[in-house]
Amino acid sequence: MHGLGYDPTTGRTYAATHHGVWLLSTEELPDTYGNGTPDTSGGEETQPIAGRAQDTMGFLVTETGLLLGSGHPDPAEEPSLSPANLGLISSTDGAETWDTVSLRGETDFHDLAAAPLPSGELRIYGYDAERGTIRVSDTSGTTWIDGAALQMRDLTTDPGNPARVFATTAAGLMVSDDAAQTFAPAIGAPALYLVDAATASTETDIVGVDTQGNVWHSTAEGPWISGGTTQGIVEALTVVGGQSPWILVSDDRGVMASADYGQNWIALLPR
Fold it and tell me: What's the chain look like in SS3?
């Protein structure tokens, strides 16, 4: 499992994996989840969306329902792409089809984050793991500049402040206030392994999982507060905004959902 994402325009929840993008049923969740409309289109599927087994490494769903991804193609579809890197790709039909945005055959983004700019464009951050560099686009992914060189595992941006970026590293949580050009330690933050952020009600909710599997959460300016725990290796984390915050994780139990920062969990897809 590489990533999880929620589309507020359709109510669909996605899991991006080593073998394609899948839909997850949320019919077991209450109407406080997302836009309040349970989605039953996933859960019984026996294959990824469109039968496409691309290795979707970087993955996110924007507030407008645009899916962004990166990684490696389905070998059956593009056996001759070399290097076998998809660059930045996008989908407007729920992963049925994908279009190349940029950097095809060049870059494999292991993580993606994005926030809207006043211009109407998306600012996209992509972690180029091969180069160990965060790349930044202010043109919705069509052109890029290099940001900081950083050995990191996960990144997210503050949806209310596109210039603020959080990155998890072996030295602890790092934060940038200049659009990933420079980073400094996030004072008072736990040693997070994964981190994500979304807008819930009217404020930014930042959630992370530390190296021991503990869940932590904070507002953009507030202190970090401990929550519940995960189980085993956590492969992916996302925060679902809306009327109240929910978090999704993929751990040893499967894909799990929580409305109280990990104190209680509901299984969306048991392992």
Answer: CCEEEEECCCCEEEEEECCEEEEECCCCCCCCCCCCCCCCCCCCCCCCHHHCCCEEEEEEECCCCCEEEEEECCCCCCCCCCCCCCCEEEECCCCCCCEEEECCCCCCEEEEEEEECCCCCEEEEEEECCCCEEEEECCCCCCCEEEEECCCCEEEEECCEEEEEEEEECCEEEEECCCCCCCEECCCCCCEEEEEEEEECCEEEEEEEECCCEEEEEECCCCCEEEEECCCCCCEEEEECECCCEEEEEECCEEEEECCCCCCCEEEEEC
